[in-house]
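Notes taken during the Thursday session

The instructor put the following on the board and asked us to keep it in front of us for the whole hour. The protein is Putative spermidine/putrescine transport system permease protein. We were told not to look anything up and to reason only from what is written here. First, the residues (289 in total):
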Amino acid sequence: MKRTALIDRRTVVDWLGIAPFMLFALLFLILPTLYLVTGAFLTPDGTFTFKNIADLFSPSILAAYWISIKVSLASSLGGAVIGFFLAWAIVMGGLPRVFRSGLLTFSGVASNFAGVPLAFAFIATLGRTGLVTVLLRDLIGFNLYSTGFNLLSFLGLTITYMFFQIPLMVLILTPALDGMKREWREASEILGASTWQYWRMIALPILWPSLLGTTLLLFANAFGAVATAYALTGSSLNIVPILLFAQIRGDVLHNPNLGYALALGMIVITGLSNVLYIWLRSRAERWQK
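Then, after some discussion, the predicted structure tokens were revealed:
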């Protein structure tokens, strides 16, 4: 009887421990999401309609989604490639231990560095009067902006996003590379396999679910980013988060319900990316066990 009472008390304590998180998730994630989904099928006066969903297929909104997808895809692929080689260098490249701890610490900070501070940092660095732009012009006579480069453009936003995409890739992929067993490499060498054959036939097939899953996570991470894009480009680059922000605030057509529909479309895209990431992550973990 006492044992049962002790177990019940522990259960209550455990539930009390996660109660703040559950309350936070309910108030700031679940209920707002349900509110957006419901609002996407209502008119401003509360009447049920499919017009908001149909309006998502208008040329201007489809163009905004396409630009967002291209920026997210470019930054996620760039972040995945560069992040993979950085993670490989600190795990398998034989770099001193101090580089690993320093890079992982920096990655933990940089992966969360976004919004207005990140936009200001890139304007101060790569803007028309930024530090790097001025140094290139004054020291070697190279005018970066004469090449057609513009920070307030698709390429500029992609490069800016990669600042937090690369460290996120490093943080997520480093444990996967740590899980690669030394015995696999030794066995391949004993059988006469070259380094390229080891990576092509053993390492990459095992790491592929982690690589693809993390790339999808980076895609979702970039697709939902709004503060950095808005602070950097304003309304000059018509991506979905900026269009959504303008719709809900009432700057365009004064139809917040269309904004809810835009948010629903973003939820569907990022949700699919995250579901695929979780599935691929589970496959990768089974391989590495």
